[in-house]
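Appendix C. Worked example: Leucyl aminopeptidase family protein
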Amino acid sequence: MTMTFAAASSDAIPVHVLESDALPAWLEAQPTPVQNWVRASGFKGSLGKSLLIPDANGKPVAVLAGYGSADQRKRGRFHLAAVAAALPEGIYRIADGLPEDMAQEEALGWLLSAYSFGRYHKSHGSSARLVAPEGVDAPRLEVIAAGERLTRDLINTPANDMGPRALEQAARDLAASHGASIKVTVGEDLLAQNFPMIHAVGRAAAQPPRLIDMTWGDTGPSLVLVGKGVCFDTGGLDLKSSTTMGLMKKDMGGAATVLGLAHMIMSLGLNLRLRVLIPAVENSVSSNAFRPGDILTSRKGLTVEINNTDAEGRLVLADALALGAEGQPDLMLSMATLTGAARVAVGPDLSPFFTDDEALATSLSAAATRVADPVWRLPFWDPYEADLEPGIADLDNAPKGGFGGAITAALFLRRFAGDACRYTHFDIYGWSPSSKPARPKGGVGMGARALLEALPELLGI
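Step 2, the predicted output written as structure tokens:
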């Protein structure tokens, strides 16, 4: 189903958004048949519940959308998306009752309720289309929904159809649709152009590793987005168990998210110079796989002792971050499904981020609240830097002890981002483990909408 708003129509079915406490007064103002119908149905205005009201011929003429209470709404988001998912095909409009400050969020949620991943079997999201509520920026929300669709589709596609080659093609398709430039460095050319750790991680796979480099825009401040593109992660020679390997098609969630965000930025024509860097690899097992105990030399010249081949994401990101930092951008962001420690810390819904920039952290957190894309700041905790230094090399890719794993991974990346630019790292999950309004089980974007909202303030555009 299309993820766009419907054109205004006199036939659009009105939706009355009703908090539980407002239902009695609303009912008193209705004709007796409507009162009887609502009471007989047991509708109480509960959050996310809906009721179709028919005319004498059984044709739906209105919808009641339960909006619960303010306290209940704090426990979730996109509440009208649950209503949309329960409605029959048709065109609907919000008639009354929706708080003005919730219109953007609920309108976007309604759009996202139409999403389904139907590449391998017939699957449909909500077919209830909404006329854009008055006061919302409908074109912007449609762009955001399209970027989210791209992210979800890429993550949901299994590795047999979304390996490094297919991820490259997705980036090429996106570049072509926006007039962006793209350069891809593949296989042995990675060594020739000094991306040794990307090559080392991906060399054992059937499809050769590559670095995708997309650029767009000629004016304004410069923004670099770096996304982890590990299309499948076996763990390498430190092999994962079948339980933990089962979801590793989503290990390119960082790449999928920055591509979705890039679509939003380019579609909206933001006045900035954008660069997207994606190291695209599979971490596989073969005779030439990199090994525990190996010492790799990075693009930046720092040496890295490999104490766990399953801590590969930070290695490929390191070379890409070093390249991005060489251009001294105004802002550089990395997004990666990097550590299980981040999930233990904040669960699957929150996007933890790391930054040394207090103003950036404040701006980003406020933006995330405005667009219902929650983030949570974790620290670049300098005292843990010593844990990264094994003694035999400059850095350890997997410090022993198990404490603060998300923090030590972020500190590792910061070494390669350097001091030449403002840098922020997101350790996202990229997956909804259960279906929620506007977020079906499967791949999901995290942090992109918050960043899009914050970029004008962060970059002064």
